[in-house]
Amino acid sequence: MTYPQILLISVKPTIRRLYHRKLQDTECELHTAKSIADALATMAVKHIDIIILCSPLPDFELSMFLDLLYKRPQWEHISLLAVEYDHLRHIFSKDTRFANTTEESVSSLQSLLATLSQ
After folding, report:
1. pLDDT tens across 12-48, in order?
2. Three-state SS string across the chain, please?
3. Is cis: bond before 73, omega within 30 of 0?
4. pTM assigned to the model
5. Which of 35, 76, 77, 116 stands 20 to 30 A from 68 (CA)?
6. 55, 47 Cβ separation under 8 angstroms
7. Is the pLDDT confidence value at 117 over 80?
8. Does the pLDDT at position 66 exceed 90?
9. Which are the contacts of 20, defined by CB distance < 8 A and separation ≥ 6?
């Protein structure tokens, strides 16, 4: 069985470790990236299903990343979960899910995973 592939993008090592702990018993494969460049490298070799963007990422890099994400047909299936990005909602697609806390994002992620497994 192939598990959903999740890519967490966060500059903070503590956040990356926290998601590993929170998702260790979940049927998914978590990949982490500490930058947009690392994320793009992962996306070039892995079929990612969900991306979690955790603030703070540089606004310019975030904007460029979203532009690439939305324009590449091979990535149009990817669900996006933005954590602590309410102030930038206008640059995200209407399908993006938003969360203000890690706990909220884990709950939203579990809902996304349930949708993928159907």
Report:
1. 999 999 999 988 888 899 999 999 999 999 999 999 9
2. CCCCEEEEECCCHHHHHHHHHHHCCCCCEEEEECCHHHHHHHHHHCCCCEEEEECCCCHHHHHHHHHHHHHCHHHCCCEEEEECCHHHHHHCCCCCEEECCHHHHHHHHHHHHHHHCC
3. no
4. 0.93
5. 116
6. no
7. no
8. yes
9. 30, 32
Q: How far apart are CA 87 and CA 39, in angstroms?
A: 22
Q: What token pair was written down for 1? A: 């069985």
Which residue bears the tokens 């697609």? 93
Side chain identity, residue 5: Q
